[in-house]
Amino acid sequence: MKTPIFDRPLFVSLLIVAQALCAAFFLFDVVADGFEMGLAGFFTSHFGIEFIAVVALIAGILFEIRVLSGMLQRTAHLERQVSQASKALHEVIEAHLDRWGLTPSERDVAHFTIKGLSIADIARLRGSAEGTIKSHLNAIYRKAGASNRGELLALLLDDLMDYRSDPDPTVGLSAQTSPR
Q1: How far apart are alpha carbons 175 and 113 in whole angstroms?
Q2: What is the rounded distance in angstroms from the CA atom of residue 88 to the CA atom of residue 141?
Q3: Is the pTM of this model over 0.85?
Q4: Residue 133 and residue 123 in contact, taking contact as beta carbons nearer than 8 Å
Q5: DSSP string of 55-70?
Q6: Contact 180, 145 (CB under 8 A)
Q7: Helix (H) and strand (E) counts in the chain
Q8: For residue 173, pLDDT beyond 60
Q9: Which of 93, 172, 180 is nearest to 145 (CA)?
Q10: Mean pLDDT of the chain
Q11: d(CA 56, CA 15)
Q12: Helix (H, G, I), strand (E, B) or coil at 143
């Protein structure tokens, strides 16, 4: 899903800069008008309205800066969370593949399977026959104690949902050491 241009930090930053330039111009204009009209000019309704408009514009700019700052902080926080989740997922998957004792070819096929690729796609990417991929998948399912792709993914998701951010990737794994 593409972010609308109005929600992008660069667009908001450019808008803030444009408004700040306008505010500086209007502030200079209001002060110059006030001095031009003399001390009494500062107390006219026209000057008061222009001054309030400039103050409101500056307040709006300060509010936008605060919103932009919050938006950037939330984005950075979400990116850190996604990175942590990705790391946790990788650790859980690797711990399972290690525990199941998969061969390098089986590991490769397992990774593609977990990503949701079809047997035909995996065969094409690996330059193998579909029968070879099916053979690898049968070995993976047997070693994992699963009978199909759904059960294989369920094994991984169960442990991922119990995952803790400990340095030992096996901490989140279920206490069972035998295949399910």
Answers
A1: 25
A2: 22
A3: no
A4: yes
A5: HHHHHHHHHHHHHHHH
A6: yes
A7: 6, 0
A8: no
A9: 180
A10: 84
A11: 16
A12: helix
Contact by Cβ (8 Å): 47, 41: yes
Q: Cα(3)–Cα(1) distance, rounded to whole angstroms?
A: 7
What is the chain's alpha carbon radius of gyration, rounded to the nearest angstrom? 31
At 176, list the tokens. 């069972």
Q: What percent of the chain has pLDDT over 90?
A: 49
Amino acid at 150: G
Instruction: Inform me whether the pLDDT recorded for 180 exceeds 90.
Output: no
Task: Indicate if the pLDDT at residue 178 is higher than 60.
Answer: no
Give CA separation, 45 vs 21, 32, 50, 79, 162, in Å. Answer: 25, 16, 9, 51, 67
Q: Is 93 helix (H, G, I), strand (E, B) or coil?
A: helix
Q: How far is CA 166 from the centre of its chain?
A: 22
Q: Summarize the chain as % helix, strand, coil (round to 5).
A: 80, 0, 20
pLDDT on residue 91: 87
In this predicted structure, the answer to whether residue 179 has a pLDDT above a threshold of 60 is no
Q: Which of 48, 86, 80 is nearest to 163 (CA)?
A: 86
**Number of Cβ within a 10 Å radius of residue 150:** 9
Closest CA to 20 of 82, 68, 78: 68
Coil, strand or helix at 118: coil
